[in-house]
Amino acid sequence: MGNNRETDKEFLIQFERINRGVKFHFSRGVGFYSSPALARLEGFDHGFTARSGGVSEGGFASLNLSFSRPENRENVMENYRIFCRAAGVPFETMVMDNYEHGTTVLRVDRADAGKGYLLDALPSCDGLITNDSEITLITGHADCMAFYFIDPVRRCIGLAHAGWKGALGKIGARVVSMMQEHHGTNPADIIAAVGPSICADCFEVGQNVAEEFAAAFPDIPCVLERAGARPHVDLWMVACKQLYDAGVSAEHISLFDVCTMETDRLYSHRRDHGNTGGMAAYLRIVQ
Ligand SMILES: [Zn+2]
Predict the structure, then answer these.
(1) pTM of the entire predicted model
(2) Could you please report the per-residue DSSP string of 80-106?
């Protein structure tokens, strides 16, 4: 064994067959993507917003759900009210991530409701877990992946924001271990999905980033070398691999299979050169 660890062939066979699928629908003018694999589970509600139906203008048009962009805060608050009505989410139940492209995952409950919009933000975190049906987990996105986790046995959930740094740091595995630790989850029971994000064809990276991925995931071909061009990284493969290694079975992992950069109805930080808004992923337990 040298630096090149043997390829994880079993994983690659499973990855070839990984579930891919998405539903899209409008509710009160707001577009929502969802995963059929998650929607099938009773007692949970989830989705991922598109950019229509809100009050923001210009590059933020129109359902900008990011407070961290240079926009009128009241517009974003109004967009959240619109989102909540459209999704059937009670406005005061949301708990928002406070992302720093790290791997910190926090366990939250009803005492945290309102954090990030009505109340002070949570400490820096990119992932949230809970078993409290009184709150709605929210993470913000604009090319970065959303990782959804549902444990229908222990009735607990997790949601994470995973940009390339979080994916590299294996935040997905961190969510699984937090669910194990706090809620007694068996990883084999988890149903997981990866939301819309930048796809491998669109995600060009510098040599340094490519090398970091090759080092962190030596047993899968997640770095795609392009002749005469910059390398690409397959974040969806990286996402599935870290969940699989954490004990989530491949049949329980789904990809929305939607690229933010190629889809006009989504914001894309990279496509829009930063002059853009943000989408929200949400996940909650419904009694
Ligand atoms: Zn793409």
Answers:
(1) 0.97
(2) HHHHHHHHT--GGGEEE-B--SS--EE
Do 257 and 66 form a contact (C-beta atoms < 8 A)?
no
Annotation: CATH topology of 9-285: CNF1/YfiH-like putative cysteine hydrolases (3.60.140)
Distance 176 CA to ligand 1 centre (A): 27
Closest by Cα among 146, 150, 145 to 129: 150
Q: Which tens digits make up the pLDDT trace of 167-201?
A: 999 999 999 999 999 999 999 999 999 999 999 99
**What is the distance in A from the centroid of ligand 1 to the CA of 41?**
29
- Residue 2 reports pLDDT greater than 80: no
Domain boundaries, the chain: 9-285
Instruction: Compute the distance from residue 96 Cα to the ligand 1 centre, in Å.
Output: 27
Instruction: List, for residues 98-141, the tens digit of each pLDDT value.
Output: 999 999 999 999 999 999 999 999 999 999 999 999 999 999 99
- Beta-bridge partners for 257: none
